[in-house]
Design goal:
Distance between the termini: 32 Å
Number of strands: 17
Radius of gyration: 24 Å
Bound molecules: cytidine-5'-triphosphate, magnesium ion
Largest sheet: 8 strands, mixed
Helix content: 25-40%
Shape: elongated
Length: 385
């Protein structure tokens, strides 16, 4: 198995962007490019090293608490050029990092599909560089104004993430002759290693100018419209089963009856997520007639659904679960449940809410015959095929 790590280059100043702060941290809706990148990579990597400018430590602090719960992320002070920033971050990678994705924080619309494609190719060939063909007619114009047409068919616009074997990337940076390379593929190529091109993604553009930011904000508001899903589930209480809610084993005299581990809260949430993407329901995905799911941890099913949504380009905005149970008292277990959901979904705990209530002894929950859970989920950014 490869240890997969991310180096996020965020140590520039974004001088061309016209933003009041380094563009990697400039507000986009309720988030910012650096945070969007870290959220996109979280399901794919074991950790991240983020290169930050000397004056931007405060900006890093402002997003630190919102990082996906499952992602170890360290900050390193960047250098005067992008190349220097990546070199400094490389030195901070742990021993077991063997595949490294280098990504520009200025490309917040990177899709899970593209990240997966790059890691897959680099796992095979040692290096993957996404590139797209050029739509406009292209010319080279020298300092004297002499114009020469270029063969558009031969040209590619190069993007990030660029994924490399760690030893190749380290060697390329160590032996680099040209201190001003604007990407890592050129260094790896110059060091004599083969560079594999994979299909890039036109929406994975680099935010550079004020116009880029205007468009990005419009897109966040309109195209990336959030979708909402609702889920409901109920299970019967019985005396001979453990009580598992949001993956947390809650000590009680009774537990829930079901084909899987009967984690009613996870089931409601799975239905909310599937509902948000209009992808059917838990019964269709994981039939309770299938022996494969007997006794299975519902958190595994939740993880599978979250992974599938991500592959379809959906990001999870937030989830909120309400558990209706007369007993036991759940308040003490809520933080653990939120953490468990956050880790499984690859989001930060402040986006994963769990609440509990009783029905004042009314109805089946009140008589302690069963427990109900209701959940809502907000997702955005994807397409429903
Ligand atoms: N970058 C970096 N360290 C530097 C310079 C750039 O980590 N010394 C990062 C930027 O933060 C950005 C990426 O490299 O995410 C791509 O560079 P670019 O688009 O040029 O960003 P900036 O240098 O920040 O912008 P500008 O050139 O407009 O100042
Ligand atoms: Mg720059």
């Amino acid at each position: 198995m490869f240890g997969r790590w991310l180096i996020l280059a965020a140590a520039g100043s974004g001088a061309r962007s016209g933003e009041a702060v380094n563009k990697a941290f400039a507000p986009l809706g309720d988030t910012c490019p650096a945070l969007m990148c870290l959220e996109a990579f979280a399901p794919f990597v074991d950790g991240a090293v983020v290169a930050i400018g000397a004056d931007d430590a405060r900006l890093w602090e402002s997003i630190k608490d919102r990082l996906p719960g499952s992602l170890p992320a360290a900050m390193v002070q960047g250098g005067a050029t992008r190349q220097a920033s990546v070199s400094l971050a490389l030195e901070r990678l742990p021993q077991d990092a063997s595949l490294v994705a280098v990504h520009d924080a200025a490309r917040p619309f990177v899709s899970p599909r593209l990240i997966a494609r790059c890691f897959e190719e680099a796992g095979r060939s040692g290096c993957a560089v996404p590139a797209i063909s050029v739509a406009d007619t292209t010319l080279s114009v020298d300092v004297s104004g002499r114009v020469d047409p270029l063969r558009r068919e031969d040209l590619r616009a190069v993007q990030t993430p660029q994924v490399f074997r760690r030893d190749w990337l380290a060697k390329a940076h160590k032996t680099a002759m040209d201190a001003s390379a604007t990407d890592d593929a050129s260094l790896v190529r110059a060091a004599g290693f083969p560079v594999s091109i994979v299909d890039g993604d036109a929406s994975n553009r680099k935010l550079t100018t004020p116009a880029d930011f205007r468009l990005a904000r419009l897109e966040m508001e309109s195209v990336r419209m959030p979708r909402v899903g609702f889920g409901l589930d109920a299970h019967r209480l019985t005396s001979d089963r453990p009580l598992i809610l949001c993956g947390v084993n809650v000590p009680h005299t009774m537990g829930l009856l079901g084909h899987s581990d009967a984690d009613v809260a996870a089931h409601a949430l799975i239905d909310a997520l599937l509902g948000a993407a209009a992808l059917g329901d838990i019964g269709g995905w994981f039939p309770d007639t299938d022996e494969a799911y007997r006794g299975i941890s519902s958190m595994l099913l939740l993880k599978r659904v979250a992974g599938d949504l991500k592959e379809r380009g959906w990001a999870i905005g937030s989830v909120d679960v309400t558990i209706v149970a007369q007993r036991p008292k759940l308040a003490g277990y809520i933080p653990q449940m939120r953490q468990s959901l956050a880790e499984t979904l690859g989001i930060s705990a402040d986006r994963a809410s769990v609440k509990a209530t009783t029905t004042e002894r009314m109805g089946y929950e009140g008589r302690e015959e069963g427990i109900t859970a209701r959940a809502v989920a907000v997702i955005y950014g994807g397409t429903t095929a």
